[in-house]
Structures are given as structure tokens and as C-alpha cells.
Amino acid sequence: MAFINLLPWREAARKEKQKQYVTVLAMTAVVSFLVFFLINMVYSAMIDGQYQRNRYLENEIKVLDQRIAEIRTLNETKRSLQQRMSLIEQLQGSRNLGTEIMSEIARVVPSGIYLTQLEKKGSTLLLVGRSESNNRLSTMLRDAEDSQLLTSPLLEFIEAGKDESRLLSNFKMHLRVQGYEAVQDSQPAKPSARGGAR
């Protein structure tokens, strides 16, 4: 007797193809997930590495900022010390200046002129006094121009004396100390001479 196969072979072939398709799809999904996972891990490692580098750079920047602040402090201290040294040098160079000025004033002021006030502001001298004649004041101006220490004599005014001192003229004169820069204009030395000179 002949054998007849009555199984639906087309249905079995279709199911086999579906099974293969599902298997390929599952394998593709697994491979895609693994690739995505690996890429994610690589990028996460790169980002973590970049974060670590950023933190390292931030720490180094903080250290450099501290060093810069220390350098600025040292520079300010250095400037302060240089200013003090310069001030000390100026004071050292001008410590005998008062004596030299008084000596030069005594040499420049001729007889017949009497100083009632001598005031120093910075490098400027103010002389107030009385004179027996204008010729003596002219002599004083010439001597001041020829002086090595005093310069730029300027006679502000001369006026005839009043009352009991009519023979004497009042005058006011300004002089500059040559080659001297005021150490502290805000705290000028003010030597004063009351009475007559010569």
C-alpha cells in the first residue's frame, strides 16, 4: 500500500522561518545592547577621566592662586621696604640740612637786615624781617642768587615801617633750597628765628 504524507509541510516551513527570524532578531537585539553597553562604558570612562583631570586642574589652579597671592604680598612688602629705604636715604642725606641752611642764611644776610621769622615748608624758605635800606636787600638777593644751597630768591613785598620803627622797612622774601626734595611735605620742619641776625 502506498504511503501518503498528509502533514501540512507549508505550515511547518513557515513556523521554522518564524523561529529563525525571532532568533536572528533576538541575537541582533543582544548584540546591539552589548555594543551600546560597551560604548556607554567607554564614554563613561572618558567622562570620568575628564572630570578627574578637571578636578586636578582646579586644585592646581587653587595652588597657583595661593602662590600668586603670596607673590603679590611679597611684592607689596618689597615695595614698602623700598619706600622705607628711599625715605631713610633721603633723611640720611638731609640730616645736616637744617644746620647748612642756618649757616647759609647767616652768610647771605648782610648787616643792617634783621630777621623776625624764618619758616621752612618742604624745599621753600620764608624769610620775614626788617631792613635799614633797600640796598641791603639788593645785596641779600644777589648773595642768595650766588649761593650754592639757596636759589630762586623772590621778594614778595617791602613796606615802610610804622610808628616807632619808621627807619626800618618790613619785607617778606621766599627762597628755595637747591637740589633738595622735600621728604615729607605734609610734616614740614619749621625753624624760626626771632630777633636780629647780624
Give the topology.
Blueprint: H1 9-93, H2 97-108, E1 113-121, E2 124-131, H3 134-146, E3 150-160, E4 169-177
Antiparallel strand pairs: 1-2, 2-4, 3-4
Describe this protein's structure.
The chain has 198 residues and is of the alpha+beta class. It folds into two domains: 14-108; 110-177, Alpha-Beta Plaits (2-Layer Sandwich), CATH 3.30.70. 56% of the residues lie in helices and 19% in strands. The protein has helices at residues 9-93, 97-108, 134-146, and strands spanning 113-121, 124-131, 150-160, 169-177. The protein has a four-stranded antiparallel β-sheet, covered by helices on one side. Strand 3 (150-160) and strand 4 form a beta hairpin. The longest helix has 85 residues, at 9-93. The model is unreliable at 182-198 (pLDDT under 50).
Number of DSSP E strands: 4
Main sheet overview:
4 strands, antiparallel
The spatial strand order of the largest sheet comes to: 1-2-4-3
Low-confidence stretches: 182-198
- Total domain count: 2
The number of helical runs is: 3
How much strand content do the residues show? 15-25%
What is the string of SSEs from the N terminus onward?
HHEEHEE
Key attributes of the depicted protein:
4-stranded antiparallel β-sheet, alpha+beta, 3 helices, disordered C terminus, single chain, about 20% strand, Alpha-Beta Plaits, 2 domains
